[in-house]
């Protein structure tokens, strides 16, 4: 298969590209704007095996170049961090909504299958039970609202133009190459450096953890076996409150629990996410990595790959960290 992977230099996209090239022998074109979260280093071992196009998904010229001759488009490209969407929502509208529109137009023109990578956050928060694909859509943040806007546009292209579309809604991912603004890599790197661990609110918010390779395999499975026009939830096998995640990381890095510091809660913070994934499981996919095993592997990967995170920890990230946590932690 020849695939266009948009956002393939990001965390989940790069793990997906690795699976497609190594396990499926696919021919892959990556289109990526290389924002702070997108890095050529994430594809360091695949440079000779893929074609890389540096460009934005909202740029029709870059998209036309990248899409030529492919069999399908998989769109990971997005602004993805909830905290940044609260302080600077502008880029979220441009990339997540407008960018998806430009890609859909190009896929329609080319007549190729289109898979949108989406999130459980479009359903909002759930106190008990799990969201199915039929659950009401109630996004809370500018991030999840723009992701839902994209999902609705994708579905409109199926209904209106007959474009073969699919949507995969993943739960919280973790694993190698995740930018350390997100909970797990932030806490792992802080713990490895003996820095404070900033837990929002009471730390009892629950996330449904999905190992990044399980998400990549789920997306590939939906692309191959899913029905056009359908939505597939891709949830992890385990749920865990944030505080317990951080305590486990403290244990795995041999640190002291006193590093944990409770800081002001995120505005509009969703309490719990939980996905029911029976629909994709009925097609033969299943998550293979339990949270305890995946977290252990992830901590080991960050410990062994300082070459990957050292340039991040000494660059623009410092200014971001100071803005986001400086006052609350009284340091940084
Ligand atoms: P990420 O922030 O690590 O990567 C995003 C990638 O998109 C980067 O390579 C970035 O350079 C690229 N990008 C951003 N704006 C672009 C633009 N305008 N044009 C082209 N490229 C652009 O994100 P991630 O965590 O890998 O998430 C990938 C996708 O999966 C997103 O669509 C996200 O909504 C979805 N998702 C993420 C999670 C999660 O837990 N991280 C869970 C479910 C779904
Ligand atoms: P995050 O990784 O930002 O993912 P999302 O908001 O998309 O679920 O956050 C995961 C959870 O961890 C969320 O409940 C917010 C919380 N959190 C903290 O408590 N401290 C932090 O420094 C960060 C980044 C997140």
Question: How would you sum up this structure in a few lines?
Answer:
By secondary structure, the protein is an alpha/beta fold. Helix content is 43%, strand content 17%.
Question: Could you walk me through the main structural features you see in this protein, from its secondary elements to its overall organization?
Answer:
By secondary structure, the protein is of the alpha/beta class. The protein has two domains: 2-173 and 210-234, 3-Layer(aba) Sandwich (Rossmann fold); 174-207 and 238-268 and 292-325, UDP-galactose 4-epimerase, domain 1. Helices cover 43% and strands 17% of the residues. The protein has helices at 11-24, 60-67, 82-87, 90-110, 142-161, 183-193, 212-225, 242-252, 278-281, 291-304, 306-313, 317-329; strands at 2-6, 27-32, 50-54, 72-75, 113-119, 165-170, 173-174, 197-200, 206-211, 230-234, 238-241, 260-263. Strands 3-2-1-4-5-6-10 form a seven-stranded parallel beta sheet, sandwiched between helices. Strand 1 (2-6), helix 1 and strand 2 (27-32) form a beta-alpha-beta unit. Helix 1 packs across helix 7 (212-225). The longest helix has 21 residues, at 90-110. The model has no long low-confidence stretch (mean pLDDT 97). Thymidine-5'-diphosphate binds next to helix 6 and strand 8.
